[in-house]
Structures are given as C-alpha cells and as structure tokens.
Amino acid sequence: GYVYVDIADRDIGSYVDEAKKIVSEKVKTPAGYSLTFSGQYENMIRVKERLKIIIPLTLFLIALLLYMNSDNCAKFHVANRRNRAFLANRINHPDS
Fold first, then answer.
1. Is 35 helix (H, G, I), strand (E, B) or coil?
2. Residue-level pLDDT at 55
3. What angle do CA 57, 58, 62 make, to 5 degrees?
C-alpha cells in the first residue's frame, strides 16, 4: 500500500531522512517486504545526481571560455599596442 504525506514546514529531503531513520528503528519489515520513498523525493534525488555532473561541467566550460577569451584578449592588446605605436609614428613622421 501507499502512504501519502503532505509536508508544509520542511523540505522533503530532511523529512525523508528523518522518516527513514525513525522507521528503521521502530518498524520491523517481514521478509519479502520493502519500504521505498517515492514521488517528489525520487525526483529530488534524480535532480541531485544530475547536478553533480552538470554543475562541475558548467563551471569548467565557463572557466575554459574565460581562459580562451582572456588569451585572445591578451593577443588583441599586444596587436593593438603595435597598431597604436605604428599610428603614433605615422602621425609624428607623416613622410616616412
């Protein structure tokens, strides 16, 4: 059978963790029976597992893009400095 629980003042994760602890201490399940927590709790666990992969991957991609951008930005500044020096030379010495 199923037991429906509506939680208003707590998050599902902490409620289920506490419920698992209390049930394991006070309820003896007969052989062949099992207790599972499903619904939003299962969804929360699945999302938590996905985020363990997605968040580090996202942070790595952001760091990579920042590195690539700063690398190109550094090259741009070197080229820009050369162009400014060339233009300053041409302005000061227009005949050369």
1. coil
2. 94
3. 120
Instruction: Write 12-20 long-range contacts (CB < 8 A, 24+).
Output: 12/40, 12/41, 12/44, 13/41, 13/44, 16/41
The rounded Cα 36 to chain-centroid distance in angstroms is 28
Profile the chain (96 residues) by mean pLDDT over runs of 10 residues: 82 90 90 87 92 93 80 58 67 66
pTM score: 0.55
How high is the pLDDT of residue 21?
93
d(CA 79, CA 92): 20
Tokens 């741009």 label which residue? 76
Q: Which two tokens stand for residue 83?
A: 């162009």
Judge whether 41 and 12 are in contact, CB under 8 Å.
yes
CA torsion, ordered 21, 27, 33, 34, to nearest 10 deg = -10
